[in-house]
Amino acid sequence: MDEPRKQVLCVDDEPDITYRMKRFVERHYPIDVHTAENGYMALGMMSQHHFDAVLLDVSMPGISGIEVTAEIIKLYPKTIVIIITGSGDHEILSRSKGARFLIKPVSMDEIKTLIYQHFGLMAN
Length: 124
Fold this sequence. Notes:
CATH topology: Rossmann fold
Number of helices: 5
Shape: globular
Oligomer: single chain
CATH class: Alpha Beta
Number of domains: 1
Distance between the termini: 20 Å
CATH architecture: 3-Layer(aba) Sandwich
Number of strands: 5
Mean pLDDT: 87
């Protein structure tokens, strides 16, 4: 029997980023990518659907990626959280214990490596 597809939530207030990530990942991997344009939407989606991983931007209007990360780690401890940030700010890194980080600009090779590390999947 086939293993169920992995479920990933990509959260960024820039729709072109989530669109490119979704297209790339779903084209090359047995992963379903869902998108959210802000942290509130992401938390709402998480309350209704299981996600294996969440990739989210730090700087978003309303609720920051750091605040969303804290909620995810508290409520969904088995979900992998990957924060995408424009800086290596040590305060951000220290406030987000339990999360992993990618520094912008993120390349598709970094996404491939990330998927392999966390899910053991190779690109088609």
